[in-house]
Amino acid sequence: MPIILNTDAFVHLVPGSTFTSYVPASRDGAQLCAWQLIVPAGLRGAAHSPTREEVMLILDGELRITLDGVSAAAHPGEVILVPAGSQLRVDGGPAAWVTATPGLGVRVAMAQDRALVLSTALSLFPDPRYSVRVSLRVDYEAAGGGYAGQRRTDPRIEARVHRALGSARTVVNVGAGTGSYEPSDRWVLAVEPSALMRSQRPPGAAPAINGRAERLPLDDGSVDAAMAMITVHHWEPPSAGLRELRRVARGPVVVLTFDLEALPAWQHEYVGECVAADAPLMPSTGEIGAALGGRIRVEHVPVPRDCIDGFIEAYYARPEALLDPVVRASQSAWRRLAPGVEERMVDRLARDLADGTWDSAHGGMRSLPEYDGALRLVISEP
Ligand SMILES: C[S@@+](CC[C@H](N)C(=O)[O-])C[C@H]1O[C@@H](n2cnc3c(N)ncnc32)[C@H](O)[C@@H]1O
Questions:
Q1: Cα 310 from Cα 313, distance rounded (Å)
Q2: Are 273 and 132 in contact (CB under 8 A)?
């Protein structure tokens, strides 16, 4: 049956808006194409002119539509027919569903009188300066091999996680993967949807069951504490899983995550597409706290220079490590990039490390014993 899962969808991040392409025109035999458009609240959109008729169904929030000079607010459930060749501007947000025919092009007026044509109904944005194409989800069954070798418990981060768990004797670890950061001196149940990830858990690790955060197979208040380490951005949506953590835990819920606003400059400069790939999925610490409720504490977690857990930021003083495909294979953001983008970024990093360009701009990072960047613990106490 041609059900298109959001794991198959691709996200195009155009300045200001996110297009998730569920039915791109490139699919064989497609007579229609369809995508979800998310416009942040408060954004003033760019005027543009579609070359094909499109139908827009408002899903959420309020969009202000200006069509051939006439403005109106559109609300969830309302439908707008946009004729080919009309002048369209979409302001505000957040979400609409758009259906059109393949071959749609969109002419957008850009700065300096340039016109950008976004073609083939979002299956192809020809100019990578204005768009990155990323897939929405990472399939850990396909991409999780080799994770355990690169993504291991860092004892300094672990100490903070365990302190946040307080006196809890029973703990559920959700999105547990290969078992990093699980305490060995308390009763732990791991919940992890990927069999490939579960198979990499070391001998003697806590039992792991096949389950997803959004629907935990546990009763209300059945454990003392819940933990979720570098996983909430994979949940669909994060808020559903976070509410589940709060439901099943009598005591603290401890979430290890990244505040993308606080990433160091070199990451934006050299692995910017990875940052962009995570951005639509990664909830802010404020959103995590709001979904968990209770008394919220957000702690900065400094990353040690020799950090053992191989997430991208861990290599702030050893960027050469990112040239190793085995290291990158355990970092999910690379898996969501369009073909060729990873190679382009790695080539540039290799060149700039070899000729000293990286070091002249960011070399000061190498001598920092730890880096207080984007890693955060969000702790909710009931
Ligand atoms: C980056 S890994 C983190 C694993 C582990 N917590 C760690 O710190 O190494 C993300 C994990 O989230 C899991 N995951 C993906 N979607 C999930 C969902 N809906 N519910 C629970 N876990 C999920 C993946 O299978 C993967 O094991």
A1: 8
A2: yes
What is the tens place of the pLDDT at every residue in 244-299? Answer: 999 999 999 999 999 988 999 999 899 988 887 787 788 899 999 999 999 999 99
Using DSSP's 3-state secondary structure scheme, residue 117 falls into strand
Whole-number pLDDT of residue 372: 97
- Cα of 149 from ligand 1 centre, angstroms: 16
Query: What gap in Å lies between CA 206 and CA 225, rounded to an integer?
Result: 15
pLDDT tier, 359 (very low <50, low <70, confident <90, very high otherwise): very high
Q: Does any ligand 1 atom lie closer than 6 A to the CB of residue 258?
A: no
Question: Whose CA is closest to atom 25 on ligand 1?
Answer: 194
Atom of ligand 1 nearest to the CA of 152: 9
Separation of alpha carbons 82 and 330, rounded Å:
43
- Does the pLDDT value for residue 109 go beyond 60? no
The pLDDT value recorded for residue 160 is 98
Which string of b and e fits 5-26 if b means at least 16 CB within 10 Å? eeebbbbbbbeebbbbbbbbbe
> For 318-324, what is the mean pLDDT?
97
Contact between 377 and 254 under an 8 Å Cβ cutoff? The reply is yes
Write down all domains in the chain, each with its CATH number in brackets: 6-124 (2.60.120.10), 140-381 (3.40.50.150)
Q: Is the CB of 230 under 6 A from ligand 1?
A: yes
